[in-house]
Each structure stands twice: as structure tokens, then as C-alpha cells.
Amino acid sequence: MIPQIHPQGANTLGLLHYLYGKGTHEEHIDPHLVASFDGMSPDPGRDATVTKKDLQELLDQPLQLLPADQRPDKHVWHCSVRAAPDDPTLTDEQWADIARRIVAATGIDPRDGAGCRWAAVRHADDHIHIVATLVREDGRRPDHHRSGQRAQAEARLIEKELGLHLVAPGDGTAAKRPTSAERHKAKRQGRERTAREELRETVRRAVAGATGESEFFDRLAAAGLLIRKRIAPSGDLLGYKVALPDDRNKDDEPVFYPGARLAPDLSLPRIRERWSAHYPDQAPSDNPGRPAPGSPAGARRRTASAAWTAVLIVERGDDAVAAAYIAAAGEVLDALATTSAAHTRRDLRDAASAFERASRSHVRAERGHDQALRQAARDLVHGGPALGRGEDGATTAMAIDMLFFLITATVHWHAKKGHAQQAAAAHQAAEHLRCAYRTAAAQPLGALYQRGRTLNRPLLQRQAVMLREALPELAEQVLAEHGWPALAATLTDAKAAGHGPAALLADAAQRRELGTAESVSEVLVWRLRRTAGLPADTSDQVNQRPGTGHAPQPARHGTADRPGPSRPRL
Questions:
Q1: What is the helix, strand, coil percentage profile of the chain, to 5?
Q2: Within 10 A of 49 (CB to CB), how many other CB atoms are there?
Q3: Distance CA 429, CA 407 (A)
Q4: DSSP assignment, residue 474?
Q5: What percentage of the chain has pLDDT greater than the value 70?
């Protein structure tokens, strides 16, 4: 159950006309009164002898009794209370009791005999609207400070008592939700999302990896947004607003939103905090297995490495530093979604959108420590769009694999802090990453699987022995997984490149948890290929034995009777 306190207004009658009207799209059904301050207020919805004006005059009577110069300019308090989609349909009597509890909890009518006058109108099965006049019967103003938080607290009690869907408690750090008017406007314009939501995503992406104001505003302009800057008399930039070119008000003027109204961390001062870190030029790689740092594949490898390090920081670091890494992880997801190939784009965008809520909390981020992740986001943006195949596609799977564990660590961090909404959002983001990973990893893992099936039996037996020695607790699980041939091929590649496969295995398994992995073997494949600097894509090796140059012969033992590769799993 979600109560929402709307901005205070000055026209009680105007609000009543809306509540008792047909709605913008005929969505108001049977508008009627379910409760009021005295239990017997006139109901223009079901009593043809009374009008909305009658109800307005009754509610505003305490206001009119005040001298004109003592009347508040905005005296209309408006609260909507909405049930969850999976809640049962409540009766009018239940909604009436909910209304009485909400006005009591918020200080509108604290049941002291002199509260404000109010009325609760129901025009749909799943919600009510409460309208009140912010003058008490004794002429004083009500104590409704922090009424939103007080209404939320009461809603949590109501949910438990009525057996309704339990909404995770918020902490005031969430982005402002679109208003009903904004949603209806978007529907009229044929938009899937409101202008507020589109702007928030566009600004987030413009922030990802940016190093200063010039680059940030250049990105906003390149995205097609209208920008209005607030300049001090001294010439200093104080803030900014953005608008969609085709989102206009009744006067045909663009509707601008300040950054802080899009999300708390998109105000100019909060964005500037991210720009405090220095971004050194990256030296070129001297490892032939690694793509150039400026390429999409190189950017994804750097992202995987940064995410790998960040997991430990989030799990064991100082809270302020962990919060900075979590916020920077949101930038990485935005950058990865922006530059992703078409077949993974939707899932990655959904992951970035869900994680936006998890990137903020009351733990203030200590910026500067998150430089590696922000640099990874910058590399992704400047590396450009990935093609989604070859090394680009394989390193995308590698990056997603590492990011999944970083986001999972974020779930645990928020859960320990009691940040229920953030933990739920991070969990949702992780599920979207699972879907993106399966799509991105299908081809490169399939190629590794086929190579692993061609390895001879003695080699596979030696690798199995090594696996049991290096990972005694996980070995039997790994050997039984569909991904074992792909890991066997990777171990072969690592040894050919001069690495000790056993040491790589032990290091990959011990440094980060594997309990949330659906396929331990697949996770180890990406960890080993990243650590050892092996090519992520080996499609061109499928038709050759490693190091022989000859076409492979069908395996006669060991893996010959294994089933085909399953869908990649994290």
C-alpha cells in the first residue's frame, strides 16, 4: 500500500471536480465518498441533491472564518493511497478505516476534537484520495510535518493487519515518481515512459564516466535535450535544467526539470563530486591476448577487472568507500547498456534502470576511491558500441559475469544495512544481468565447449586430478556441469600461454564467492581468461586442436558421450 502526499494546492473545488469527474481517460468509475471528518459530509457522487460546491464549502469553512490576511495561500492537502496490484479488492468500509488512520497518523486529524476537515473519495477499486483543508477547527495550522513518512509508517502497519502486500520501507533517497498528470500526458503522446523518466535515464548516461561540466553538457546536447543553465551574477554555474524538445505545456513551452528533481544524485553539486578524481591516460597493453584498451573489447576487459576488484571493496571495505563503488557501478551499467549490441541492449538497459535505485542511500559516498570503476565507464563510452560477436561479444559476457557478482555483493551490503528498497532493486538488476549474460555468452561458450570435447582422455584425466587438488570442495560439482569442457579448454589455453592452471584455479575460486553462481565452471572460465590474458573468443580455434594445426578427430573417450552445451548460466 503506497500513500503519496501531493503538492499543496489552493483550489479545493478544482480538486473535487477532478476526483468526482470522469478522469482524463474515463478511468474514474463510480466516484463516491467513503469517509469524512464528521462521518456525514455530503456526497455529490451518490446524492443528487448536493453538489461539489456544497462539499467544498463545508471543508473550507474553518478557512473562511479566519481573517483574510491570516489564511494560508495553499490550504489544500491531498493524499492518494493505492493498494498493490496483487492485493485483494478492499471494501468501502476498509478504505474508510484506512483513510481515518492516515489522517490521524499524519496530523491532519489527530482525533483531538479540533482537527482539519477532510473527505476521502473512491473512484477506482485500488485507491482512494483524501482531500483536507489545512486549518483546524480551532483556527490553528495542523502539525503535519513529515506527513509523507508518517503516512508510510502507518501504511506498513495496515498492510500487516490486513494481510496485504508488504511494501519495502523507503528512506527518502528514491527518485521522485511521475505524477498521474505526467503519466496521462505520456499516454496521450504515445510514449512508453514519462518525460521525467526519459530525462532521468538520459542524464544518468551523460554522467557515466564524464570528467567535467563541458563533457557532461556536450553529451546532454548530443542526446537532443534542451538545456537551461542557472548562472550566478559572478558568472559561476549554479545549476541546470533539461527538457525534451517535444514535451511542452499548454502554452507550447518546453517543460524543464532541474537535475535534483530527476534524482537526488543528479543535482549539479552531487554530480561535481564525481569529477574530483583524476583520470590518467591508459598505457597500451603489451599482452597479445588482450585487445587494445581503446577498443570496445578492451574497455570490457578493463570493466571486468575493475568489477573484480570492486567486489572485495563492497564486501569488506569502509561503508563510505563501498557506497562510492556502488554508485560508480551504476555508471558502469549505464555505459555498458549505452554501448551494448542490439541482442543484449534491452536486458542491460533494464539492469541499469533497476540498479539506479540501489545506487543511492543515506550512506554518503566518499568519492575518489571509485576512480577505477568510473574510468571503466569512461572507457566503455569512448570505446564505442560493441558489435556483439567475436572478441566484443565474448568480452561483453566476461564483463557481465564480473558485474553480476558486484551487483550481488551490493544486494548483501544493502541488506545488512537494512536498505530494503535498494536491496530489492539490486536483486532485480542482477536478474536482468543473468538474462543479458545468457545471450552474450552463448556463442563464445559454445565454441569453448566444442574445443573441450576434442581434448584427449589422458589430458582430461590430468585436468580432473588437478581440479580436485586445487578445488577439492567444488571439483565434483564442476566435473558434473555442462560447462566443464569449456573450462577444460581454458585450462589448456592457460598452460599453453605459460601459466600454472592450478594456481589460477585456486586464486579464481578463493578470492571471490561462487555460491550465487548457477554454473561454477562458466564463472571460472571467465575469471581464468581475464586473469591469464587469454582471448575471450576462440571461435577460430574450434576447427583446430590447440597447438597442432590439425583438424580435430572425434573424441573416443571421456567427453564423446556428453550432451550438447546448455544455455550459459551464471
A1: 50, 10, 40
A2: 7
A3: 7
A4: T
A5: 90
The grid coordinates listed for 301 are 576487459
> 277, exposed or middle or buried, with CB in 10 Å at 0-12, 13-18, 19+?
middle
In the block, which residue shows the cell 566435473? 479
Q: How many CA atoms lie within 13 A of 315 on its CB side?
A: 14
Amino acid at 563: P
- pLDDT for residue 294: 72
String of DSSP letters for 137-201: TTSPPP--TTHHHHHHHHHHHHHHHHT---PPP--S-SPPPPPHHHHHHHHHTT-SS-HHHHHHH
Q: What is the dihedral of CA 103, 104, 110, 115, to 10 degrees?
A: 20
Under the banding of pLDDT at 50, 70 and 90, the label for residue 570 is low
Total Cβ atoms within 10 A of residue 338:
22
Q: Is 35 helix (H, G, I), strand (E, B) or coil?
A: strand
* CA-atom Rg of the chain in angstroms: 29
Mean pLDDT of 22-39: 87
pTM (two decimals)? 0.77
Return d(Cα 476, Cα 491) in angstroms, integer.
17
The continuous run of DSSP H or E covering 270 comes out as helix 268-274
- pLDDT at residue number 283: 43
Which residue's C-alpha cell is 549490441? 341
8-state DSSP, 51: -
